[in-house]
Amino acid sequence: MIISRAATLRGKFVLPKWKKPARLLSSTFCRTIFMSRPAMSMAEEKEVKITGLHLRGTEDEPLFENRVAKSHLPRALTSENAIDLLRSIDAFLFDCDGVLWKGNNLIDGVPEALEALRSMGKKLLFVTNDSTKSRRQSAHKFHALGLDVRQEEIFSSSFAAAMYLKLNNFPHDKKVYVIGEEGILEELELAGYTSIGGPEDGKKTIQLRPNFLFEHDKNVCYSLYLPGCLFIATNRDTVGHFTGVQEWPAAGCMVAAICESVQKEPIIVGKPSTFMMDFLLERYQIDTSKMCMIGDRLDTDILFGKNAGCKTLLVLSGHTTLSRLMDPLNSIQPDYYTDIVSDIISLCAE
User: Fold this and answer.
1) pLDDT at 259
2) Residues 193, 162 contacting (CB under 8 angstroms)
3) Distance of alpha carbon 92 from its chain centroid, rounded?
4) What angle do CA 29, 34, 39 make, to 5 degrees?
């Protein structure tokens, strides 16, 4: 079963039916841990350390004390370090929503920035968690917005889901149930897999009233409880930009609901999972120290880059605000941050 973000807006899903679910061929799982602690008196509070922070609570001291080392704080992009960054990087990896555009609106300076980077001989790759589109459909959006991007430069989580099955030798005679849009179905078909569900099952609606029933395969839910049934999520983003005005619930909402229902964690193939990065490295043979990941989300884009050993640049044009970045409780720090992606070029011209 593969889940993408579009299904979260409908509030309904049906799970797969496989006669013989395929055996799990990879032990790579993305775990989410929810932690809480019981209430304590201030005198009982002991020293607590959380990544990048030193927290202490006693009767005489405040509970939170920020001791983040200055060397760990992100640096604002300036004319000096922007030039150094450009000189040290061979390939730029871009997130799309919130970095290049919001909804169907381009962010200022994007076409000029991409063109300038290409003229310098930089390799440009576009790594997106948007699974509603296939690579072909994503390329169409790039072109519609006036961006000259080739399909082979695009790596979407819908493509990653299909590649995960293919690289792990998932049997082609087994069916894949999809909770999501056409993007996943198209990529699965290109990889030689038969998929069911998708937008057609999305038309089935659930009404919250007594004795409401709708037609569905009653054996479907059983498959997901079996140890050999793969549970794949394209991503766990909680929100996304469906329009340029506001954020909407994304795949993470649906994934969380199913996780709680079946008490099972999914295999994540999108950012920040290293699966897509491994695929990119295999294809392009570029040292990660020569790559820079540019994104608007700390927990996906920046973490994706940091986990792989890339330089990271956070843009404040999308999900993450400056106050959120500088929050003492934030443990994910990019190497640099700036307002919009075109600052990479404009700062160098100063």
Assistant:
1) 86
2) yes
3) 17
4) 160
Residue 24 in domain: yes
The helix (H) or strand (E) run that includes residue 305 is helix 303-308
**Under a CB-based contact definition with an 8 Å cutoff, are residues 284 and 291 in contact?**
no
d(CA 187, CA 184): 5
97 is catalytic: no
CA dist., res. 291 & res. 35, Å (int): 34
**Res 13 pLDDT > 70:** no
Question: Which of the following is catalytic: 60, 90, 148, 327?
Answer: 90
Residue with tokens 């973490």: 303
What is the separation, in whole angstroms, between the first and last Cα of the chain? Answer: 51
In the structure, what pLDDT confidence band is assigned to residue 349 with cuts at 50, 70 and 90? confident
Tokens of 134: 């296939």
Residue 240 lies in a domain: yes
On the CB side of 172, CA atoms within 13 Å amount to 8
Burial of 171 (0-12, 13-18, 19+ CB in 10 A): exposed
How much is the average pLDDT of 231-248? 78
* Both tokens assigned to 273: 């999972």
Among 94, 100, 113, 101, which Cα is nearest to 245's? 101
Confidence (pLDDT) at 244: 61
Structural domain of 282: 1-33+70-206+213-350
Most confident of 69-73, 167-171, 248-252: 167-171
Ranked by mean pLDDT, the top range of 100-104, 216-220, 260-264 is: 100-104
Please check whether residue 50 lies inside any domain of the structure: no
DSSP string of 159-175, one letter each residue: HHHHHHHHHTT--TTSE
Q: Is residue 16 part of a domain?
A: yes
CATH code of the domain in which 195 resides: 3.40.50.1000
Picking from 301, 275, 303, 280, the residue whose alpha carbon sits closest to that of residue 290 is 280
Domain count, the chain: 1
Two tokens at 15? 């799970």
- Specify whether the backbone of 17 is left (phi greater than 0), alpha (psi in -120 to 50) or beta: beta
Angle between helices 182-190 and 157-167 (to 10 degrees): 30
Listed residue (112, 72, 120, 73) closest to 92, CA to CA: 120
